[in-house]
Amino acid sequence: MSSNQRRYLSTIGVFGAASLIILAFLAFRPSDRISYELPVLTPFDRGDVTAISIARSIGTITLRQEAGRWLVAPGDFLADSVNVDFLLSTVTGFTITDVVSVSDDPGRYDLDEADRVRVTVEGEGGTLRVFDVGRRAATFGHTFVRIPGDSRILQAGGSLRSLFARAVDDFRDKSVLTFDPATITEITVTRELPDEPLQTVHLVRSATGWERGDEPGEGAAGTLDPAGIEAALRFLGDLPAYRFRYTDDPIGDPWLTVTLEGDETYTLSLYPELANIYPARSSGSDFTFDMFLFQAGLVSEPFGLE
Fold this sequence. Notes:
- By secondary structure, the chain is α+β, with helices and mostly antiparallel strands.
- The protein contains 6 helices and 19 strands.
- The chain has helices at residues 3-28, 81-92, 160-164, 168-171, 226-237, 293-300; strands at 49-56, 59-66, 69-73, 77-78, 96-101, 117-123, 126-136, 142-146, 153-157, 175-178, 186-191, 199-206, 209-212, 238-240, 243-244, 256-261, 265-270, 277-282, 289-292.
- The strands form 3 sheets. Strands 4-3-2-1-6-7-8-9-5 form a 9-stranded antiparallel β-sheet. An 8-stranded antiparallel β-sheet has the order 13-12-11-16-17-18-19-15. A two-stranded antiparallel sheet has the order 10-14.
- The chain starts with a helix and ends in a 6-residue tail after the last helix.
């Protein structure tokens, strides 16, 4: 064998050995995030949960179970049952799917103390689960999270930020008037606007439908819309607030009042427009709330009050 052949074979052997070393390093290096163990979470049932606390730098919101109902604080308002059900499903099904980083700045993921959302789930025996929610991850349907006591940046399933980073009003039961439209036997609608005559329509349900129970006078309403009246009753029978009002700002006198007689008396009053909404009050709520402008038309127009 010539010296050139020996040098050629030697070079191949050196490169081959180096390649094996590199492959072995890549295979066994500890930097691959898949090799990290995921946190072990102790499971619990939704029936075990008595409270969910959501803490942010701007304050803390707590949902708690009391006498078979869920309340939201501050304020101890009745919580929306659909929201509570979704929260319970989320905290019991909370799952870590990946380790993202062991050394990154948590601020990059909105997991620093100023931006994080800390969720604490309580049960009768104590704390069931605690986790911090950051911003939405690049992977669809995932969120960056951390577990207190674990410095790593983790990833969990679900769009958690939008679910937990909300205001008290978003967790409240928005129902402000509830009744069975079929039980309503009399309707009185009154509209009072500045520089216009008072308009009132009083209807009575008969065997053939709705009939006027009063004599139209000055400023009488226009043509009645029987189908629209039934639609208005269905709308009012399950009326949600757009949002509740938390200030004592004066709202004036009502310009539209609806009184419904059935198994009991139900009322709805709309007040002058403020910032593209109508403040309102109803017999089904202790709180002043807001309604959209177009909703007033759904209530007034079928009765000839345009």
